[in-house]
What does this fold into?
Amino acid sequence: MKNVSDFFGCNVFDDRVMKANLSAKVYQSLRKTIDEGAKLDIGVANAVAAAMKDWAVEHGATHYTHWFQPLTGVTAEKHDSFISPSPDGGVIMEFSGKELIKGEPDASSFPSGGLRATFEARGYTAWDPTSYAFIKGNTLCIPTAFCSYGGEALDKKTPLLRSMEALNKQAIRILHLFGNDDVKCVRTSVGPEQEYFLITKEMYEQRRDLQFTGRTLFGARPPKGQEMDDHYFGVIKPRVAAYMEELNEELWKLGILAKTEHNEVAPAQHELAPIYTTTNIATDHNQLTMEMMQKVAAKHGLVCLLHEKPFAGVNGSGKHNNWSLTTDGGVNLLSPGETPYENAQFLLFLCAVIKAVDDYQDLLRLSVATAGNDHRLGANEAPPAVISIFLGEELHAVLEAIETGTPYAGTEKTQMKLGVDVLPKFNRDTTDRNRTSPFAFTGNKFEFRMLGSSNSIACANIMLNSAVAESLKIYADRLEKAENFEDVLHEMIRKTIKDHKHVIFNGNGYDDTWIKEAVEERGLLNYRTTPDCMPHLLDEKNVRMLTSHKVFSEAELKSRCEIMLENYCKAVLIEANTMIDMAKTEIVPAVSAYVLELANTAAAKKAVDDSISCGYETKLVRNLAKLEEQIAIKTDELEEAVMKLQDAEDVEAEAYRIRDAVLGKMGELRAACDEAEAMTAKKYWPFPTYGDLLFGVK
Ligand code: ADP
Ligand code: MG
It folds into this structure.
């Protein structure tokens, strides 16, 4: 049995390694940069670079890379070796502080949404010392931010760090108002629970839809799906267990706190959850986790599907973003306290989140919008596209009592008055039951459940941090000027509850009647698709809020909106083209061949004895011939819809056309093909079926 503590973090240049390999002076100076954002001296950078290189070479690394997260959604790296020629004809291994701090990848083919004309193609990467460097394969990876020469962010990490800073600034103002003068820093922590599917590599390679798009574009319902609910938390199959064991080991070596794993609701679906950590590190770790999930799967003859909806009619995969606010002293600001003052502070932070989620429903929705996630939100299993907050009955009742100034059943006092009453203790268990809410309070954290499994968690946290920073700023502006702090505080909390209670919903979020109520009675937003929500990134109120906290510039927002819509269009277009291709070159030929066999069989029977009825063959030939015809028509129609996209004047118009025309045609083509699949002999069907894929990993 291997001892995890012996190898945990062995591939990470973490605090232990820094302490052991840097002089006390350099170490302290670097810690100041990491903890307080102090500017880094080049002398210190040189010393850190040298120590990093020695450590990396000792661990078998030959190359280094600035590791970053461009707007493609995956991570990027360009490897440079440490070698430098020596006068005697050999090489020495070198790495300077300058190379550590700044890189200049030729970045012209990363999306920039018009921010970076190609003549100034060289964006630059800047070291993020708050996220530890690590070794992957033979390469030292240095987590970095990625910017254009004008300083505009071209990645997801830069705005994430800015949003953390914005929230820090406003939260500190509030804490100081409550007399917590010793708090220097407030950070958000995140624990993302990651869902995924595992299928066999052999079957994956037979399906071009999976290879090109990450999801199945065809597939008739299998006789058995997830209706028995026998997979959820079920016994893990040996092959999957071996995979999970190796995955954990690889993640632990990278210092990632992989903690729990279990089977999910759908067959072949699983989940991995890490222990929570600071948001930017959690973001880096989640990207690495997704990468390792795929790498380790390949070693086990498996493929890990991270798409939000790999199979129609079967649960999709999401990512639950557990989020909380913590001070440098380790106090969780979303935990109800012991004293009346702590409770008032807790309620104010709680209200800040409620107000933020309500005021910026659109930003939260669009932060998780992708072509893949559109299939999930609003379908039966995932949280709907409507954003609401679950608080649990008890906390909800507390808020109601405050709003109406009526006695709360849990208190003996007649009336709740903040700063006087201690909140009744509420039971964590009762707050954690609702699994259908997109945004649930779970005792000491919020769980944002709308993220898709392949999403970077950066986007959702950027919006969440910024929106909460805005609420806190509004509160702090008022409280700092208040003559009677307690009165203003009480009134502000009461007003927040009154103004925003329509976003609180403790019922079943999967229920259709809820969507109707949410939209028609409560006026909540229901943006079903990416084209519906993405343009709202540029709504005046959103631009104002995000630029005022310096999370984005207006130019960055415009570029992001364009890139996200472009990503959407490209994803659906690849799917449409893959469908056309598979229908023409695989499905129609298979159906034809089977029809021919049926016709030949009928003819052969007749040749033996004219009186034999060939009813079975005849009926099937007729039905399949009709379907073949239908498939041909639908393929043509889809092709035509795709062609027409060329006329769209801009990417927004193209996205609308895709939503209104292309997706519908894809659905029609699929329906005809799936019907044909159900009638065609298995040996003729050109690729593995849903039954094969979902139950193929033994
Ligand atoms: P549940 O299974 O009920 O959703 P868990 O306690 O198992 O809740 O936590 C799920 C995820 O939430 C884990 O990744 C965990 O590390 C994370 N988490 C727990 N507490 C916090 C917190 N205070 N802030 C952020 N994430 C947290
Ligand atoms: Mg959870």
